[in-house]
Amino acid sequence: MNLRELLSVPYLLEAEAVEAEAGRWRLRLAYPELPGCTAEGHLLEDVLRELERRRVEIIVSLVEAGKQPPVPREPLASSDPLWTANDLGLSAGVAALLGSAAK
């Protein structure tokens, strides 16, 4: 699988409220099928955006290290990982990797 396909793989999303300290709660989101891919915060939109950023960064790092990211299901045909990388404000390097994977 190329990078574009790997970034189009859908992962299960886990969400939970966690008590950070007595009476103070935070939202924790995770893709448990992708080790180390978690994010925490107070606003759902911010936490989800950070989780997506982590997902892309983890997959790109694994590919650059010559390792295969987990592929629990087939990539989504309707996914546009280049748009996602640009929307998340990821480095031009990641966008360039995705652009070159399309060629």
Mean pLDDT: 90
What's the tally of helices? Answer: 4
Label the CATH architecture. 2-Layer Sandwich
Give the number of DSSP strands: 3
Radius of gyration: 15 Å
Strand content: 15-25%
CATH level 1 class label: Alpha Beta
| Approximate shape | elongated
Strand order of the largest sheet: 1-2-3
Query: What are the secondary-structure elements, in order, as H or E?
Result: HEEEHHH
Structural class: alpha+beta
State the end-to-end distance. 14 Å
Portion of residues within helices: 40-55%
Number of domains: 1
Question: How would you summarize this macromolecular structure in one to three sentences?
Answer:
This protein is α+β, with helices and mostly antiparallel strands and 103 residues long. It has helices at residues 3-6, 44-64, 81-87, 92-101, and strands spanning 14-21, 24-30, 38-41. The protein has a single domain (3-98), classed as Double Stranded RNA Binding Domain (2-Layer Sandwich).
Structure description:
The protein is α+β, with helices and mostly antiparallel strands. The chain has one domain (3-98): Double Stranded RNA Binding Domain, CATH 3.30.160. The chain is built from 4 helices and 3 strands. The chain has helices at 3-6, 44-64, 81-87, 92-101, and strands at 14-21, 24-30, 38-41. Strands 1-2-3 form a 3-stranded antiparallel β-sheet. The two termini are 14 Å apart. The model has no long low-confidence stretch (mean pLDDT 90).
